[in-house]
Amino acid sequence: xxxxxxxxxxQANDQIAExxxxxxxxxxxxxxxxxxxxGAGKTxxxxxxxxxxxxxxxxxxxxxxxxxxxDADRVAQLGLPTVQINTSGACHLDAGMVASALDSLTLxxxxxLIIENVGNLVCPSSYRLGEHFRTVVLSxxxxxxxxxxxxxxxxxxxxxxxxxxxxxxxxxxxxxxVRADVKVVAPTVASFxxxxxxxxxxxxxxxxxEQRCEQIREGKG
Amino acid sequence: xxxxxxxxxxQANDQIAExxxxxxxxxxxxxxxxxxxxGAGKTxxxxxxxxxxxxxxxxxxxxxxxxxxxDADRVAQLGLPTVQINTSGACHLDAGMVASALDSLTLxxxxxLIIENVGNLVCPSSYRLGEHFRTVVLSxxxxxxxxxxxxxxxxxxxxxxxxxxxxxxxxxxxxxxVRADVKVVAPTVASFxxxxxxxxxxxxxxxxxEQRCEQIREGKG
Lengths: 221, 221
Fold this sequence. Notes:
2 copies of one chain form a homodimer.
Chain A: H1 2-26, E1 30-36, H2 42-53, E2 59-65, H3 70-76, E3 82-86, H4 95-102, E4 112-116, E5 133-139, H5 146-149, H6 151-155, E6 159-163, H7 175-185, E7 190-193, H8 202-220
Parallel strand pairs in A: 1-4, 1-5, 2-3, 2-4, 5-6, 6-7
Helix pairs in contact in A: 1-4, 2-8
């Protein structure tokens, strides 16, 4: 009984995700689902990307949070169209929440929509939002054991950003151990190591992001 | 329909939690549910507490993880009875999982059972395990906005441990801002700031833990 209901919920989510995807494709917008633990630096990554990307493409952001508009306030200060989703305590975004957010956003003319999910290394990976691709942010102080301990998340993304590289001298964190775990757990995932705070390594991830957007738009052409 | 099922699931969980509690009380064992984001330092906190506590009380640990036995391996090295719960991808422990773990553990003779939950700042707060009290671990590099952004978790615990105080010089983190948010969001929660890595501040939290265990055992007497 419980399993049947769970399946129904997921099916409904997938149907709405498919509708979101059609809206993105009709407007020629690439959409990314940005995932990671609380405090991994998802909003900081957006703040670091915008100066690199804003000259080349038109961006908008959907911010998912349990409470407060703090992340959305930070992003709005960058001058980007921003919609806040308050999940009222829910531990992940779902496709229906994103569909509602899209009603408040003009997709035409955009190139990339960044959807920042709720801080959570487990639940959000199970909910498709209609995005074209996913990046998970893992920060150095979280520890180098997280890929092995939370494998599902890493298996369901296209790329991994290892953030807060500037803290490497101050904590025990073996980059090679993480890369070795990724090779075993999620061998097709593209890995990047950077510091959103200092800007180190941002260019490589930005280049990957631009290339993915290009591929998505070509696929629609 | 969905809401009805969710309520039934929670009721079943609460019933099993009540049974777990009776088993703890019958054996005169205090039980703590240790919560926090992935990488907040829950296992490191246990490693820091054991040298302080092991001389005064008999401890055992239940470790909850999605995958691997890495945390349980670390705790077992401390010489404590340890049971690993593999949640098979579930984002929180529930009372039934803990009940199964208790079957592999001798409660008689123990003073304190530490149950380390899955790394997640949202879902585990909704599931009672039968514990007498709860501590949430928040680490400095996660950022000083987490109490406001994830209020439910902080409202459902007895104490807050702000961990990784040794990283304060390297990140933006305003301790007073966190304490001010706690006063608003969860005014009855006891706050501690410490570094499990250096041992700074461990004594204050240990004293609180001992006092809570004492109170619980007196309440049963």
